[in-house]
Amino acid sequence: MRVQWTVWLSFLYITAAKAEKLEVAVYYESLCPASIEFITTQLDPSFKKVEKYLDLDLVTFGKATADNSSGHWKFTCQHGPLECYGNKIYSCVIKHNSTASSLEFVNCGMNSNLNNNSLQICAAKTGIPWEIIHWCLSSGEADYLLAKNGYKTKSVTPPIRFVPTIIFNGVYNESEDQEARENFFKVVCQLLKNKPPICKQLGILFNILM
Fold it and tell me: Closest Cα partner for 91 from 37, 27, 157?
């Protein structure tokens, strides 16, 4: 009986800890200048500070289109075929790696020109096996993952008009989205219920500024 209670309490603790996390969904695309700026200057440095308080979902698709009428997926991306390739790479990485490693790779990729040499360097830096990425691309899994991201992107209400779009706790809020692009860390700290010490320190600064 004691073992059962221990298991149950552990389950409740894990569930409560997960519930306390702030859900963040970032809808972006690989060659979008605004996406590059947001991920490299806002999301990546902020995530490193409050990683354990966030449940981050990176959705790579943006304003692309997906068509399977021929029986094979065909994608058209806002910034051309290279962006579709980058979107597939990121989709593969996110599928097969932890959130922290995936974001580290995406951040590195955003600072590259998306050629394989640069991306393989990013893989080596982040400890992500390039072989798995290559398999994902060649097996067709990348097409499936990108199409899935497309469905997820098109399902957002209201429809996404700008890339990147940042959604907190599953509900789109225009003011939060806009502010997050400029100061993601501030918005995260404002929305977190169980605020970490670094947010409390920042709160003092916010009060001074306001």
Answer: 27
User: In whole numbers, what is the pLDDT of the chain averaged over residues?
Assistant: 89
Tokens 């993601």 correspond to 184
d(CA 146, CA 143): 5
Q: Which helix (H) or strand (E) holds 33?
A: helix 33-38
In angstroms, rounded to a whole number, what is the distance separating the alpha carbons of residues 102 and 94? 5
Enter the pTM of the model: 0.87
Question: Which tokens hold the place of 106?
Answer: 């995406």
Dihedrals φ, ψ of 140, to 5°? 95, -5
Which of 91, 112, 99 lies closest to 21, judged by CA?
A: 99
Q: Please answer whether residues 100 and 127 qualify as being in contact, where contact means their C-beta atoms are separated by less than 8 angstroms.
A: no
For the segment 148-177, what is each residue's pLDDT rounded down to a tens digit? 999 999 999 999 999 999 999 999 999 999
Contact indicator for 30, 114 with CB cutoff of 8 Å: yes
